[in-house]
Amino acid sequence: MTRPLQAIIDTGALRHNLDVLRQQAAHSRILAVIKANAYGHGLAIAADALAQADGFAVASLEEALQLRQLGVECTILLLEGVFEASEILACSEHRLAMVIHRHEQIEWLRAARLKQPVEIFLKLNSGMNRLGFTPETYHQAMAEVRAIAAVSHITQTSHFASADEADGIEAQMAVIHAAFSAHAHPASLANSAAVFRYPESHRDWVRPGISLYGGSPFADTPAETLGLRPVMTLHSRIIAVQTLQPGQALGYGGDWVAQHPTRIGVVACGYADGYPRHAGSGTPILVNGQRTRTLGRVSMDMLFADLSCVQGAQCGSPVTLWGDGLPVEQVAQAAGTINYELLCARAQRVPERII
Predict the structure, then answer these.
(1) Tens digit of pLDDT for each residue in 268-321?
(2) What is the pLDDT of residues 28-80, one digit of tens each?
(3) Is residue 225, in this structure, part of any structural domain at all?
(4) Is residue 92 a part of any domain in this protein?
(5) How far apart are CA 97 and CA 75, in angstroms?
(6) The one catalytic residue among 35, 39, 123, 138
(7) What sign does the dihedral 131-28-179-154 (CA atoms) show?
(8) Of these residues, 39, 198, 252, 275, which one is catalytic?
């Protein structure tokens, strides 16, 4: 018998979410971010379902080459650029665009002997202080890449640190405007949060990530309110039922103790599958389509669901860990983390079923 845990991937929801984002940023091209195995949804699956995107963004050369091997012909951008000089040759050969965010990459590009020129996205550090040239060094970097014959096309880019929070993007936009306005090149700025809240940031390319997969980029706004549909539903079943008497403890460490007779369902899912171990008692879960809560500690392969108020629950009853009917944001909030982490953490041993 096959273990009942699986990730159901709704490709129709992927296409729907892409359409929602097109409506939000109607005058921009969409660079769909499918790094980290498409946020845990499967790189090949996402690339096929999102074939109408104008391009894809990934984190590594390996991901980009996999997309080319799958027959993807559109723009593919390496968000962190190249990590060593030899990778520039692969970018040229396979028509990969790359972010340039530090001077060593410019030196590598200048020294490269390429069969065909490459497209670059020159990155400004506008306040996130992660990658990019400072406002003081950005113009010199622009002059240097413009002078390189092997550069075919330049897009200006930066990344927002707080587009999903109260701080917003105003301070960064002031830095960006001062730097970008000096150069007649297209621009790419908006992440998922900025696509929905800050139309002034849309520019030539937008770079949605979490919203493509039906996750809200905002802590205070449900994905459903944004018109998004969940793509991944983590689904399992009850594999055993226990009835605890008052005073009996549950699971490792006995953290949860019954105060009255309580039916407990054992669910085939644990932290080795990517479910957060730090999700404590009270984390929402669906059994037979009815909302209930987890109890006790999450173990490697199993966790516990409270069946006290779940009608008809028994061995074999369906369980939704997150997804259709249970937004991943609610599980993430209860576990003290974010929806990105839960989706990306799905373990390789969890099979997927495409619908």
Answers:
(1) 999 999 999 999 999 999 999 999 999 999 999 999 999 999 999 999 999 999
(2) 999 999 999 999 999 999 999 999 999 999 999 999 999 999 999 999 999 99
(3) no
(4) yes
(5) 7
(6) 35
(7) positive
(8) 252
Q: Is residue 207 part of a domain?
A: yes
Task: Work out the angle between the directed axes of helices 170-180 and 135-146 (0-180°, nearest 10).
Answer: 40
Query: Hunting for tokens 């495409």 — which residue is that?
Result: 354
Q: Which amino acid is at 302?
A: M
Separation of alpha carbons 235 and 179, rounded Å = 48
Q: Catalytic: 35?
A: yes
Check residue 42 and give its pLDDT: 96
Token couple for 150: 């092997």
Please tell me whether residues 145 and 240 are part of one structural domain: no
The Cα–Cα gap between 46 and 42 comes to: 6
Q: Please indicate, yes or no, if residue 263 is contained in any of the structural domains.
A: yes
Range of the domain at 320: 232-354
Helices (H), the chain: 11-24, 35-40, 43-49, 61-69, 87-93, 103-111, 135-146, 170-180, 192-197, 328-334, 339-344
Query: C-alpha angle 293/327/196, rounded to 5°?
Result: 150
Question: Are 263 and 293 in contact, with CB atoms under 8 Å apart?
Answer: no
Q: What does the angle CA 128 – CA 131 – CA 134 come to, to the nearest 5 degrees? A: 75
How far the first Cα of the chain sits from its last, in Å, is 22
Last residue of a domain, one of 171, 188, 215: 215
CATH number at 286 reads 2.40.37.10
Residues 150 and 120: their CA atoms lie apart, in Å, by 10
Q: Which of 160, 189, 215 is the last residue of a domain?
A: 215
Overall pTM > 0.85: yes
10 Å CB burial of residue 80 (0-12, 13-18, 19+) is middle
| Residue 71: partners with Cβ closer than 8 Å, 6 or more residues away | none
Are 268 and 237 within 8 A, CB to CB?
A: yes
